[in-house]
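Collaborator request, handled under Task 6.
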Amino acid sequence: MAGPSLTIGPQTTIEDVRRFVDEHGGNKKIHGKVDKETGETTLYIGKKSPSLFALITGKWERRKEAAKVAIEQLVQRTFDDIKGNRTLSNADRAAIANLSEQISAQLRATGDHSVRGGLIRVLAMAAKGAEAYGREVTPDGGPKLSMLGDFGYAISGLAPGLKTGIQNNADLKVLSDALGDAIAEQFKRLNPSEDSRMMFATAWGGDFKQQLLDAFRARIGEEAWAELAKTENFQQKVMGFIDDAYDVAAAKMTGSSQVPGSEKQVAWTKNGVARTATLSNIKIDGTVYEPVRHLGTGGYAEVFLYREVKDAEPKKQIAFKLANAPPQSPEDDWRMARELRMKAIEEGGAEIRAHRTLQGEGHKNVLGMSGMIRTPEGRFGIAMELAPGGDMLEFAKLLKNSVGTGPGKITPQMAEVVRLTLFKDMVEGLHHIQDTREGMHLDLKTPNVLIGTGGEAKISDFGLSTEGTEINIEGYTPPDNPTWLAPEVIHAKRNVDALRGLTAPKLDNVTKQVNRQLEDVIFLHPEPEGASKNDLVKIRRENKQALNILTGSILQPVIRQNVEGIGITNKSDTWALGIMGVDLWSGQQQFLDFAWNAEVEGKLVAFRSDRNNVAIGYQLDSRGNPVGTGEPLFESTGHVQVDSLLNDLLRPDPDDRPDLQAVLNNPLFSQPGVGSSEVRALILALREGNPEKIDGAFMQLGVRIIEDTVNA
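Structure tokens returned to the collaborator:
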């Protein structure tokens, strides 16, 4: 092997290979020679044609293959580094996985041919572009090891046991429990604020864990650590030890916890399938509660009724939302299992922090959270005020069916007072979230509004919520159901999808240019003569996929720059509020006559195209023609003032939607009986379904309306 060469070592990057090729190879063949002692491969520029000896001995073929293997391993290592230094969405992970597979496929597609410099250049460009997937990993906002002060005594005391335990393949639970106890005691002593403890309890703790691991590594020593790393399943053992210790500490951070030794079985049926859960008593702010029964399912959690443990009545009741265990992964894939746990903890912790922040000191129209528990296994439980009246969509249907004559029926006028009362509740709850707490709910819909014990509407479910008045669309995954989504959210989501899918018009020219350049250097499947139509379709589809994946990676920086400019504001919640109003007055969920979500999205995006469009089409101009260029989305409520209010909330342009304080000042909410204790009693009676109670509450509300009218 004569001439320039490059040895692939631990620090070598694909960019180093590209520079080597540009300086010495151009588009020449790249071969490799493997060092038998070190296992490292040295790349060099291959000759134009092999010698007879090289052909006979197979050395020519081996060196072509060695170059391919070394380059493929280098690219995969590059991608592993990228994933380790990025926070990735599921779409980003899938894109990088596809890119990795496609690069391997391109190297295999060279067949008997050598890798050429042109392909190396493309692979380097693709890998560099992949760095733009996701976002750079930044400190996770969770606790840092420095918050424990001088913690060296604990690490020094436990390090020998950790070393011996790994060497002997022993169970490390006793050690992890001891470490978790020490962390909790030290952290709470040095960080007494409730905010600090809540931060620890709701975090995955990635930075803290890495710093803790580094501290143990330093205490054990590099040489000894390197020897430990050779033991079977070392990474799984040591990371399990750190994770378990953090979970033990996190479970002790708040004043709420499970009560050991109090387990009982709770059974229920879901979709005809019998289910059970083993539940412990819980202690929330000094009060002990016991499980009573299953209430329902919310997202990736089950909700249970808990009752205060004491002899005397009354006994306080709460709802306890317990997260399901993370999805199971293959037993041998501990990394995937850990990633699933991390995702569940990050999402659950984010919901708890958002709920706590957005409720603030509490509001009668925001479901109250009284405490949270993190189990030693890393599952979250949220203690909330009980809202036994069901959700607003169910109640809207019930209210519609309650209008009529006879026992247990009410008049249309009384139904209007009920609707205005509950809608005002929803406006006040969102006003508290938006203006008082400066947050965004981002999943506002009638099923997420509950009826409390006093007949009030309460906004719940803060799984997607965040602080602030606007958010970049890339940091937000909208719900799959578009019924309550604002048109600008769907439009933004489609823009991102178009950019990622290389179908955005602004990328058209540059995409075509990159595709043409790639076609000259990558190995596309040939179209053999006489191939069937189906075979040709398959070959062309695979070729197009190869081009798009590589092109998409190369253009990632451009895509990222465009995506980062796409955002939505809290006015998207204002739109959702308007849709909830339509649900309440119509007595049903909207867009049920559409078979596909895409149809709903298309209708909403079309509505957005003209800021003069009107959602509820009662409005006419001076000549009697409808205002706006598009068809209205919904039928009239039958009340011009209500239609006008909802239309204001459902303006196509978010900038045209009103502030919620102005909405609360609407004269509709000052009508006799609205918000009175009598209408609350009627709401509860309707929910209970007792005709006698409904008739009694109906009469009382009638009297109150007369009194309010006389006193106005």
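The cover message to the collaborator said: "Residues 392-487+569-704 form a domain with the Transferase(Phosphotransferase); domain 1 fold (CATH 1.10.510.10). The chain has 24 helices and 19 strands. Please let us know whether this matches your experimental observations."
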